[in-house]
Design a protein that fits this description.
190 residues, alpha+beta, six-stranded antiparallel sheet, 2 domains, 11 strands, OB fold (Dihydrolipoamide Acetyltransferase, E2P), five-stranded antiparallel sheet
Length: 190
């Protein structure tokens, strides 16, 4: 096969792949709709005006819902939350936040509506490159910043805060239970 014929074949394969991708995207859009939003973006719809952005004294204000790592607004836009803020504020998925974007471009977050919470006790583990707390037969992801802030170690008993009513992949570390306290039940809630 000559170099020219290889180039022609490669171009045909690329064109076919592009056509297949367009067809697959069209079918996917038909199945889920153009406005398919994450569960957190749907929750954020009740928080803000239709465009999602308010002006307050020359500053942009966006409201959204914490998803465990970032804030999601009503348009499914993601805004990074500093991990140390999320850890120290003990944010859990479902918490509502207000982001003020200052004139100099800096972000200022404020928690405006905590979701109902419950506390559970579990054991800190590390798997698949992620710290997790295993409690009640489920593994909850936790932020690395929270693990380091609390000086937690793998195997430590952890008091974890999770949403009370909704299932969550994430939790917030409240405390590390000292190792010399051995009579704490790790199978259930407080």
């Amino acid at each position: 096969m000559t170099q020219d014929s290889k180039l022609i074949l490669i171009k045909e394969l690329v064109d076919t792949a592009e056509d297949n991708l367009r067809t697959a995207k069209k079918m996917l859009t038909e199945l889920v709709g153009k406005d398919a939003k994450s569960e957190f973006a749907k929750k954020a719809e009740v928080l803000t005006s239709q465009d999602g952005v308010k002006d307050e004294e020359g500053q942009k204000v966006v409201e959204g819902v914490f998803d465990g790592e970032k804030m999601v607004d009503n348009k499914d836009n993601s805004f990074p939350i500093p991990a140390n803020y999320a850890s120290k504020s003990k944010l859990v998925p479902g918490d509502t936040l207000k982001l003020t974007i200052k004139e100099d471009g800096s972000f200022l977050y404020k928690q405006i509506g905590p979701v109902d919470r419950k506390k559970i006790i579990g054991i800190l583990t590390y798997e698949d490159g992620q710290y997790k707390v295993v409690a009640g037969g489920k593994a909850y992801k936790v932020l690395l910043a929270s693990v380091t802030y609390h000086k937690a170690e793998i195997g430590d008993q952890i008091t974890l805060i999770v949403p009370e009513k909704e299932d969550s992949k994430y939790g917030a570390i409240e405390n590390v239970i000292p190792k010399d306290i051995t009579d704490v039940d790790t199978t259930g809630e407080f």
